[in-house]
Amino acid sequence: xxxxxxxxxxxxxxxxxxxxxxxxxxxxxxxxxxxxxxxxxxxxxxxxxxxxxxxxxxxxxxxxxxxxxxxxxxxxxxxxxxxxxxxxxxxxxxxxxxxxxxxxxxxxxxxxxxxxxxxxxxxxxxxxxxxxxxxxxxxxxxxxxxxxxxxxxxxxxxxxxxxxxxxxxxxxxxxxxxxxxxxxxxxxxxxxxxxxxxxxxxxxxxxxxxxxxxxxxxxxxxxxxxxxxxxxxxxx
Length: 236
Fold this sequence. Notes:
mainly alpha, 13 helices, 79% helix
């Protein structure tokens, strides 16, 4: 190929210099579908396992039966089962880390931090609604006040969530799942073991200490959620 023809080909296929302003104008012309926060949360709910949502709502069934029959043991049965409600929330909210799907979810439209925070928020809101229904129902069937009933259910739930979030952040895969299950089982058995002395430990003189413990556990839970979300940022 002679030099003249080579020069003509190079000139015909010469790549123009990139223009940043032209690139910005082109990107602005592309359609950018927006999504509201409510729509984003609804899309995350669609990824939840159905049996997790069903089991969370099924906690209301024994409370309804106990309230109907006025059974005093209903509160302690549910108080010993409530750690598994926290277990369901933590394992479902951190499922991507447990099954090794974090790298895949980091390549999606939304950041992994936003996805995990949305899932934990939705599951936490669901658990709050379940607890708000359980507390008055268990109060009907027990001889404790509404505040005492709430503390009986809230303390084991918060304790399980705190331990499970800490384990899910430190371990991954099956180790995290088994650790969270063991924590829920230990809290459940410990709570049932306190049943014979419940009237003593939940008497009015000790209620301020139980309230302080609940507030501390809530603060610790918020800290654990922050650390869990922060860990996803470091991974990204």
